[in-house]
Amino acid sequence: MMKYCCFGVMLLLGLLTGCRKEFPVLEDPDNHIVGSFSAEFETFWQGMNNQYVFWDRDPTDWDAVYREYKPKFAELNLYREEDHEKAYYYYRDMTANLIDAHFTLSTQVVPAGEPTSLSPASQRNLRRADWHPPLPESFFFDSIFQQYLGDDSYRSKDASGNPSLVAGYARDRAILYLRLPRFNLRETALTGTDDERLVWQYFVDAIKNPQAEGLILDLRGNGGGYLEDLSFLLGQLITKPYVFGATRYKSGPGRLDYTAWIPAQVFPQQGSQAFTKPVVVLVDQYSASMSELTAVAVKAFPGGLGRVVGETTWGATGPVGSRTMFNSGPFFTAASYVYMASHQFRDTRQLSYEGKGIGPDAAVPQDGNALAQNVDVQLEKAIQLFQ
Protein backbone atom coordinates (compact mmCIF):
# COMPACT_ATOMS: atom_id res chain seq x y z
CA MET A 1 0.00 0.00 0.00
CA MET A 2 1.47 3.34 -1.04
CA LYS A 3 1.76 5.97 1.68
CA TYR A 4 1.47 9.70 1.13
CA CYS A 5 3.01 12.18 3.52
CA CYS A 6 1.94 15.30 4.47
CA PHE A 7 -0.71 16.09 3.32
CA GLY A 8 -13.35 17.67 -10.15
CA VAL A 9 -13.25 20.55 -12.40
CA MET A 10 -10.48 21.30 -14.92
CA LEU A 11 -8.97 24.78 -15.02
CA LEU A 12 -9.27 26.82 -18.20
CA LEU A 13 -5.70 25.96 -19.16
CA GLY A 14 -5.91 27.73 -22.49
CA LEU A 15 -6.41 31.05 -20.73
CA LEU A 16 -3.77 30.51 -18.10
CA THR A 17 -0.90 29.24 -20.26
CA GLY A 18 -0.74 32.57 -22.04
CA CYS A 19 0.27 34.45 -18.89
CA ARG A 20 3.99 33.63 -19.06
CA LYS A 21 6.23 32.37 -21.81
CA GLU A 22 7.77 28.99 -20.90
CA PHE A 23 11.34 27.93 -21.55
CA PRO A 24 11.99 24.64 -23.36
CA VAL A 25 11.53 21.41 -21.39
CA LEU A 26 14.92 19.97 -20.42
CA GLU A 27 15.99 16.53 -19.23
CA ASP A 28 14.65 14.61 -16.25
CA PRO A 29 16.57 16.17 -13.31
CA ASP A 30 17.14 12.82 -11.60
CA ASN A 31 19.00 11.55 -14.67
CA HIS A 32 20.97 14.70 -15.50
CA ILE A 33 24.71 14.49 -14.78
CA VAL A 34 26.32 17.88 -14.24
CA GLY A 35 29.87 19.14 -14.08
CA SER A 36 29.39 22.83 -13.44
CA PHE A 37 27.27 25.22 -11.41
CA SER A 38 25.67 26.39 -14.64
CA ALA A 39 24.50 22.86 -15.48
CA GLU A 40 23.37 22.31 -11.88
CA PHE A 41 21.28 25.47 -12.07
CA GLU A 42 19.71 24.29 -15.35
CA THR A 43 18.81 20.98 -13.73
CA PHE A 44 17.27 22.60 -10.66
CA TRP A 45 15.41 25.22 -12.65
CA GLN A 46 14.01 22.63 -15.04
CA GLY A 47 12.95 20.31 -12.20
CA MET A 48 11.03 23.14 -10.58
CA ASN A 49 9.63 24.37 -13.89
CA ASN A 50 8.15 20.97 -14.72
CA GLN A 51 7.32 19.51 -11.30
CA TYR A 52 6.39 22.32 -8.91
CA VAL A 53 2.64 21.98 -8.45
CA PHE A 54 1.69 25.56 -7.50
CA TRP A 55 2.68 27.57 -10.57
CA ASP A 56 -0.93 28.62 -11.21
CA ARG A 57 -0.98 30.57 -7.93
CA ASP A 58 2.64 31.17 -6.90
CA PRO A 59 3.81 34.82 -7.11
CA THR A 60 7.34 33.86 -8.25
CA ASP A 61 8.12 34.69 -11.89
CA TRP A 62 10.16 31.58 -12.68
CA ASP A 63 11.25 32.85 -16.10
CA ALA A 64 12.61 36.02 -14.52
CA VAL A 65 14.51 33.80 -12.08
CA TYR A 66 16.14 32.06 -15.04
CA ARG A 67 17.19 35.33 -16.67
CA GLU A 68 18.64 36.75 -13.45
CA TYR A 69 20.40 33.74 -11.99
CA LYS A 70 21.61 31.80 -15.03
CA PRO A 71 24.54 34.22 -15.58
CA LYS A 72 25.28 34.35 -11.85
CA PHE A 73 25.67 30.57 -11.63
CA ALA A 74 27.74 30.59 -14.82
CA GLU A 75 30.37 32.65 -12.98
CA LEU A 76 30.74 30.12 -10.14
CA ASN A 77 33.46 27.48 -9.92
CA LEU A 78 32.69 24.04 -8.45
CA TYR A 79 36.20 23.87 -6.96
CA ARG A 80 35.92 27.02 -4.86
CA GLU A 81 34.20 26.61 -1.50
CA GLU A 82 33.27 30.27 -1.39
CA ASP A 83 31.34 29.78 -4.62
CA HIS A 84 29.35 26.97 -3.01
CA GLU A 85 28.40 29.45 -0.32
CA LYS A 86 27.38 31.98 -2.97
CA ALA A 87 25.22 29.30 -4.60
CA TYR A 88 23.53 28.66 -1.25
CA TYR A 89 22.47 32.32 -1.01
CA TYR A 90 21.38 32.39 -4.65
CA TYR A 91 19.10 29.40 -4.03
CA ARG A 92 17.77 31.08 -0.89
CA ASP A 93 16.88 34.24 -2.76
CA MET A 94 15.43 32.40 -5.77
CA THR A 95 13.03 30.38 -3.66
CA ALA A 96 12.21 32.89 -0.91
CA ASN A 97 8.63 33.55 -2.05
CA LEU A 98 7.56 30.02 -3.02
CA ILE A 99 4.22 29.28 -1.37
CA ASP A 100 4.77 25.52 -1.05
CA ALA A 101 5.31 25.25 2.71
CA HIS A 102 6.72 21.73 2.31
CA PHE A 103 9.46 23.05 0.04
CA THR A 104 12.92 22.29 1.43
CA LEU A 105 16.18 22.44 -0.52
CA SER A 106 19.18 20.55 0.86
CA THR A 107 22.58 21.35 -0.65
CA GLN A 108 26.08 19.95 -0.12
CA VAL A 109 27.73 23.06 1.32
CA VAL A 110 26.08 25.24 3.96
CA PRO A 111 27.69 28.51 5.15
CA ALA A 112 28.52 28.68 8.85
CA GLY A 113 25.60 29.80 10.97
CA GLU A 114 22.98 29.12 8.28
CA PRO A 115 20.18 26.51 8.36
CA THR A 116 21.25 23.11 7.04
CA SER A 117 18.44 23.28 4.48
CA LEU A 118 16.51 26.09 2.83
CA SER A 119 12.85 26.40 3.82
CA PRO A 120 10.95 29.55 2.79
CA ALA A 121 8.10 28.59 5.12
CA SER A 122 10.47 28.42 8.09
CA GLN A 123 11.72 31.91 7.35
CA ARG A 124 8.15 33.19 7.04
CA ASN A 125 7.28 31.61 10.37
CA LEU A 126 10.20 33.33 12.07
CA ARG A 127 8.87 36.70 10.85
CA ARG A 128 5.42 36.16 12.36
CA ALA A 129 4.40 38.78 14.90
CA ASP A 130 3.16 35.98 17.17
CA TRP A 131 6.22 33.75 16.70
CA HIS A 132 7.20 31.53 19.61
CA PRO A 133 9.27 28.35 19.93
CA PRO A 134 7.40 25.04 19.74
CA LEU A 135 6.09 23.47 22.92
CA PRO A 136 8.32 20.61 24.11
CA GLU A 137 6.67 17.20 23.91
CA SER A 138 7.27 16.84 27.66
CA PHE A 139 4.63 19.54 28.16
CA PHE A 140 1.92 17.27 26.77
CA PHE A 141 3.35 14.13 28.33
CA ASP A 142 3.80 15.59 31.81
CA SER A 143 2.11 18.96 32.39
CA ILE A 144 -1.17 18.34 30.57
CA PHE A 145 -1.35 14.76 31.78
CA GLN A 146 -0.91 15.82 35.39
CA GLN A 147 -2.76 19.16 35.42
CA TYR A 148 -5.71 18.62 33.11
CA LEU A 149 -6.50 14.92 32.81
CA GLY A 150 -8.33 12.76 35.31
CA ASP A 151 -7.32 9.47 36.89
CA ASP A 152 -8.70 7.42 33.99
CA SER A 153 -5.98 8.60 31.59
CA TYR A 154 -3.03 6.98 29.88
CA ARG A 155 0.23 7.99 28.23
CA SER A 156 2.87 6.11 26.28
CA LYS A 157 6.38 6.23 24.86
CA ASP A 158 7.60 4.88 21.53
CA ALA A 159 10.30 2.25 21.02
CA SER A 160 13.00 4.93 21.32
CA GLY A 161 11.65 6.19 24.63
CA ASN A 162 10.13 9.37 23.21
CA PRO A 163 6.72 10.64 24.41
CA SER A 164 3.94 9.31 22.22
CA LEU A 165 0.16 9.03 22.55
CA VAL A 166 -1.67 10.59 25.51
CA ALA A 167 -5.39 9.95 26.06
CA GLY A 168 -7.90 10.49 28.83
CA TYR A 169 -10.78 12.58 30.06
CA ALA A 170 -10.47 16.21 31.12
CA ARG A 171 -10.44 16.43 34.91
CA ASP A 172 -14.01 16.50 36.30
CA ARG A 173 -15.45 16.45 32.77
CA ALA A 174 -16.38 13.72 30.29
CA ILE A 175 -14.46 15.42 27.49
CA LEU A 176 -12.13 12.97 25.81
CA TYR A 177 -8.61 14.21 25.01
CA LEU A 178 -6.12 12.68 22.55
CA ARG A 179 -2.58 13.95 21.99
CA LEU A 180 -0.85 12.98 18.71
CA PRO A 181 2.79 14.13 18.41
CA ARG A 182 3.01 12.88 14.78
CA PHE A 183 0.94 11.00 12.21
CA ASN A 184 2.12 7.41 12.07
CA LEU A 185 -0.95 6.31 13.96
CA ARG A 186 -1.94 3.25 11.98
CA GLU A 187 1.59 1.87 12.22
CA THR A 188 1.68 2.69 15.93
CA ALA A 189 -1.63 0.92 16.53
CA LEU A 190 -0.36 -2.20 14.78
CA THR A 191 3.33 -2.41 15.69
CA GLY A 192 3.92 0.20 18.41
CA THR A 193 4.97 -0.46 21.97
CA ASP A 194 2.57 -2.22 24.31
CA ASP A 195 1.78 1.11 25.96
CA GLU A 196 1.09 2.82 22.63
CA ARG A 197 -1.29 0.10 21.54
CA LEU A 198 -3.00 0.18 24.93
CA VAL A 199 -3.57 3.96 24.69
CA TRP A 200 -4.94 3.67 21.16
CA GLN A 201 -7.36 0.93 22.13
CA TYR A 202 -8.42 2.97 25.14
CA PHE A 203 -9.25 5.85 22.79
CA VAL A 204 -11.18 3.66 20.33
CA ASP A 205 -13.27 2.28 23.19
CA ALA A 206 -13.74 5.69 24.84
CA ILE A 207 -15.24 7.42 21.78
CA LYS A 208 -18.08 4.88 21.90
CA ASN A 209 -18.95 5.93 25.44
CA PRO A 210 -22.43 7.54 25.25
CA GLN A 211 -21.56 9.71 28.27
CA ALA A 212 -18.73 11.48 26.44
CA GLU A 213 -19.39 15.21 26.07
CA GLY A 214 -17.05 15.57 23.11
CA LEU A 215 -13.50 15.14 21.84
CA ILE A 216 -10.37 17.31 21.81
CA LEU A 217 -7.62 16.36 19.33
CA ASP A 218 -4.36 18.07 20.29
CA LEU A 219 -2.22 18.57 17.18
CA ARG A 220 -0.06 21.45 18.36
CA GLY A 221 3.50 21.02 17.17
CA ASN A 222 2.48 18.02 15.04
CA GLY A 223 4.36 18.39 11.75
CA GLY A 224 2.42 15.73 9.87
CA GLY A 225 3.02 12.22 8.60
CA TYR A 226 1.06 9.58 6.70
CA LEU A 227 -2.12 10.55 4.85
CA GLU A 228 -3.70 7.16 5.56
CA ASP A 229 -4.00 8.24 9.20
CA LEU A 230 -6.72 10.72 8.26
CA SER A 231 -9.32 7.99 7.79
CA PHE A 232 -7.71 5.76 10.40
CA LEU A 233 -8.33 8.47 13.00
CA LEU A 234 -11.45 10.38 11.93
CA GLY A 235 -12.93 7.27 10.33
CA GLN A 236 -13.42 5.93 13.86
CA LEU A 237 -16.05 8.67 14.35
CA ILE A 238 -18.24 8.14 11.27
CA THR A 239 -20.26 5.41 9.58
CA LYS A 240 -20.49 7.05 6.13
CA PRO A 241 -17.77 8.68 3.98
CA TYR A 242 -17.77 12.45 3.68
CA VAL A 243 -15.95 14.94 1.45
CA PHE A 244 -13.79 17.63 3.04
CA GLY A 245 -12.00 19.03 -0.01
CA ALA A 246 -10.27 18.08 -3.24
CA THR A 247 -6.77 17.50 -4.61
CA ARG A 248 -5.11 17.60 -8.00
CA TYR A 249 -1.61 17.01 -9.34
CA LYS A 250 0.38 17.52 -12.53
CA SER A 251 -0.80 15.64 -15.63
CA GLY A 252 2.37 16.37 -17.60
CA PRO A 253 5.60 18.41 -17.73
CA GLY A 254 3.99 21.71 -18.71
CA ARG A 255 3.85 24.30 -15.97
CA LEU A 256 0.06 24.39 -16.00
CA ASP A 257 -0.65 20.76 -16.87
CA TYR A 258 -3.10 19.65 -14.18
CA THR A 259 -5.48 16.80 -13.60
CA ALA A 260 -9.12 17.41 -12.70
CA TRP A 261 -9.89 18.04 -9.04
CA ILE A 262 -10.40 14.74 -7.21
CA PRO A 263 -12.67 14.65 -4.11
CA ALA A 264 -10.79 14.19 -0.83
CA GLN A 265 -12.79 12.00 1.54
CA VAL A 266 -12.70 10.51 5.01
CA PHE A 267 -13.78 6.85 5.10
CA PRO A 268 -15.27 4.98 8.07
CA GLN A 269 -13.19 2.24 9.68
CA GLN A 270 -14.28 -1.25 10.58
CA GLY A 271 -16.31 -1.25 13.78
CA SER A 272 -16.72 2.55 13.77
CA GLN A 273 -19.63 4.27 15.43
CA ALA A 274 -21.09 7.70 14.63
CA PHE A 275 -19.74 10.30 17.06
CA THR A 276 -22.49 12.92 17.47
CA LYS A 277 -20.76 15.21 19.97
CA PRO A 278 -18.56 18.26 19.25
CA VAL A 279 -14.97 17.71 18.08
CA VAL A 280 -12.31 20.38 18.71
CA VAL A 281 -8.84 20.41 17.15
CA LEU A 282 -6.05 22.30 18.93
CA VAL A 283 -3.45 23.74 16.53
CA ASP A 284 -0.56 26.18 16.63
CA GLN A 285 1.90 27.70 14.17
CA TYR A 286 3.84 24.41 14.05
CA SER A 287 0.83 22.27 13.13
CA ALA A 288 1.57 21.31 9.53
CA SER A 289 0.67 19.03 6.66
CA MET A 290 -1.46 16.15 7.97
CA SER A 291 -2.35 18.19 11.06
CA GLU A 292 -3.77 20.86 8.78
CA LEU A 293 -5.68 18.40 6.61
CA THR A 294 -7.12 16.90 9.80
CA ALA A 295 -8.19 20.37 10.96
CA VAL A 296 -9.94 21.02 7.63
CA ALA A 297 -11.59 17.59 7.78
CA VAL A 298 -12.84 18.28 11.31
CA LYS A 299 -14.23 21.66 10.22
CA ALA A 300 -16.22 19.73 7.58
CA PHE A 301 -17.34 17.09 10.11
CA PRO A 302 -20.95 15.94 9.58
CA GLY A 303 -23.50 18.01 11.46
CA GLY A 304 -21.21 21.05 11.76
CA LEU A 305 -19.74 19.67 14.99
CA GLY A 306 -16.09 20.52 14.33
CA ARG A 307 -14.14 23.55 15.60
CA VAL A 308 -10.49 24.61 15.42
CA VAL A 309 -8.86 26.42 18.35
CA GLY A 310 -5.41 28.00 18.71
CA GLU A 311 -3.21 29.77 16.15
CA THR A 312 -2.94 30.02 12.38
CA THR A 313 -1.17 26.89 11.17
CA TRP A 314 2.02 26.38 9.11
CA GLY A 315 0.42 26.40 5.65
CA ALA A 316 1.59 23.08 4.12
CA THR A 317 -1.63 21.42 2.98
CA GLY A 318 -0.45 19.87 -0.30
CA PRO A 319 0.18 16.11 0.15
CA VAL A 320 3.61 14.72 -0.78
CA GLY A 321 3.85 11.62 -2.97
CA SER A 322 5.92 9.99 -5.71
CA ARG A 323 7.13 12.31 -8.46
CA THR A 324 7.14 9.50 -11.02
CA MET A 325 3.48 8.75 -10.28
CA PHE A 326 2.17 12.31 -10.07
CA ASN A 327 4.52 14.27 -12.39
CA SER A 328 5.21 16.53 -9.43
CA GLY A 329 6.93 16.36 -6.07
CA PRO A 330 10.43 15.68 -4.67
CA PHE A 331 13.46 15.26 -6.91
CA PHE A 332 17.27 15.05 -6.80
CA THR A 333 19.89 16.94 -8.74
CA ALA A 334 23.56 16.04 -8.77
CA ALA A 335 24.24 18.29 -5.76
CA SER A 336 20.93 18.80 -3.97
CA TYR A 337 17.63 17.30 -2.89
CA VAL A 338 14.34 19.13 -3.32
CA TYR A 339 11.42 18.11 -1.11
CA MET A 340 8.04 19.57 -2.06
CA ALA A 341 4.35 18.81 -2.42
CA SER A 342 3.05 16.66 -5.25
CA HIS A 343 -0.60 17.79 -4.93
CA GLN A 344 -2.62 20.92 -4.46
CA PHE A 345 -5.42 20.85 -1.90
CA ARG A 346 -8.50 23.01 -1.49
CA ASP A 347 -11.43 22.73 0.91
CA THR A 348 -15.12 22.37 0.07
CA ARG A 349 -15.36 26.15 -0.39
CA GLN A 350 -12.52 25.94 -2.94
CA LEU A 351 -10.16 27.79 -0.59
CA SER A 352 -6.43 27.03 -0.66
CA TYR A 353 -4.37 27.41 2.52
CA GLU A 354 -0.95 26.75 0.99
CA GLY A 355 1.61 29.22 2.28
CA LYS A 356 -1.06 30.96 4.39
CA GLY A 357 -2.18 28.45 7.01
CA ILE A 358 -5.58 27.68 8.46
CA GLY A 359 -7.07 30.32 10.70
CA PRO A 360 -8.73 28.96 13.87
CA ASP A 361 -12.42 29.40 14.64
CA ALA A 362 -11.35 30.56 18.10
CA ALA A 363 -7.99 32.37 18.04
CA VAL A 364 -6.00 31.84 21.25
CA PRO A 365 -2.32 32.86 21.17
CA GLN A 366 0.16 30.97 23.27
CA ASP A 367 0.69 32.59 26.68
CA GLY A 368 4.25 32.03 27.84
CA ASN A 369 3.66 33.44 31.32
CA ALA A 370 0.70 31.13 31.84
CA LEU A 371 2.67 28.13 30.57
CA ALA A 372 5.35 28.85 33.15
CA GLN A 373 2.63 28.26 35.75
CA ASN A 374 1.48 25.07 33.95
CA VAL A 375 -1.64 26.87 32.71
CA ASP A 376 -2.62 26.04 29.13
CA VAL A 377 -4.95 28.82 27.93
CA GLN A 378 -5.48 27.14 24.56
CA LEU A 379 -6.62 23.86 26.07
CA GLU A 380 -8.77 25.71 28.60
CA LYS A 381 -10.49 27.57 25.76
CA ALA A 382 -11.18 24.26 24.03
CA ILE A 383 -12.75 22.87 27.20
CA GLN A 384 -14.88 26.01 27.62
CA LEU A 385 -16.46 25.44 24.21
CA PHE A 386 -18.23 22.40 25.64
CA GLN A 387 -20.10 24.45 28.26
Automatic annotation (TrEMBL):
One of its GO terms (biological process) is signal transduction. PROSITE patterns: PROKAR_LIPOPROTEIN. It holds the Pfam family Peptidase_S41. Transmembrane segments: none annotated. One of its GO terms (cellular component) is outer membrane-bounded periplasmic space. Residues 154-365 form the Tail specific protease domain. Signal peptide: none annotated. SMART domains: TSPc. GO terms for molecular function: endopeptidase activity; serine-type peptidase activity. This is Peptidase family S41. It comes from Siphonobacter aquaeclarae.
